[in-house]
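SAMPLE LOG
Freezer: B-3
Tube label: C17
Construct: single chain, 469 aa
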Amino acid sequence: MSDPGLCFLSANTYELTQKKGMNVPGRIYANERILRGLDENVMNQIENVASLPGILLYSIAMPDAHQGYGFPIGGVAAFPYPGGIISPGGIGYDINCGIRMMKTGVPLKDFSKKISCITDLIFQNIPLGLGQGAIYRPGNKELARILDKGAEFIVEIGMGEETDLERCESRGHLAESDPGEVSQKAVERGSFQLGSLGSGNHFIEIDAVGEILDEKFAGAAGLFKDEIVILIHSGSRGLGHQITTDWVRILEKETRNKNIFLKDRQLVYTRSDEENGKKYFAAMNAGANFAFANRQLMTHRIRTVLKKNISNSLTCELVCDCCHNIAMIENWRGRKIMVHRKGATRADSRKMTSFGGGLFSSPVIIPGSMGSGFILLSPEDKCEETFFSLPHGSGRLLSRKQATKKFRESDIKKQLMKKGIYVKNNSREGVSEEAPEAYKGLEDIVETVTKAGLTREILRGRPLGNIKG
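STRUCTURE (predicted):
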């Protein structure tokens, strides 16, 4: 991509020059291949985000950036707190869409003949796809506690371990929530979806640990080559979507009443310390807690399946759980700020997690397509430049509509089966939309941020079985 407004700063780091209407420049992390393929719509969204009032330093696009609602997916922006703004477009409709990783302690040699069987069993035991389906159906009082306490409540009622919370972002519980700010319609949509995967790019994947690049971390965490690990990628389902729908409408009305000019109507905002800002933030955190609880319930169900069908002594220990779509109040360079991450992962090198009695920077999972597995990263101190953020995955090259037109489900499954990857899916479209060729290369994403000095690799995983909604 050739753009006279784009300046090279350092390895895989570029600046989009500040133009009229932009309050700060843009910051783009990309290697040459990613840069050449950057969509013009993403560039426009970077500029639009840079026009928001009070934005700090720059509007950031991670290497997995592609067009989203308001912000690009892969977008990061920070604002003062208090006194700054909050925008649903910088968080997204799937509040706290996130990913977690569990280690099983089972070597591949003891599992290889069971891959398709176990994948099928997990498929049968986890509700998938659009609409209703739940592992756990809480009453109104219980649901209110889930919206308030997240995964902590699920562990309290016996479906998890204390270590699950210790290894989870914010212990699976965002304290600034208020279930009272969640509409009845959102509650109704969520109450029959708790403990379900959903559709789209959400997945459950069985992987084997491949190359280990940080022996000290892997040894402390008990991870070993060819160990079976499980990834769960899901979010807040219909509840989170409805919370965002409700608050976009409210803030669109506020924007009209205040005659606020927007370069993009999808970037409606309000001040985070005013009434609507406080209410939306409280509702968003309740949605995030629902997502933490959702992933925790699926974790419990998968543990049950594995214990019953492999070994009752299997522990299936959580390694990490990372949020992708969230706004958080954080400390940065001696001040409080509110960081919006839309398809980006919190990666605070100062945040320590205990593994084997040692303390390590909390790891970040970067999943690839169905055909490429994942890479586990450790954030470096230079992540301060990105408000302690890293990518959240490979990022789309083709839209879902384009992928569905171009790829056939049967061809994709045959292609993956030749590579030893068994796919179990709920819908044909769900596989076509998620064809490996519809995504950027995982290697390009990780090379970009490692060479930029933001992170280093811990280990890699290769896929064996994949479940799609």
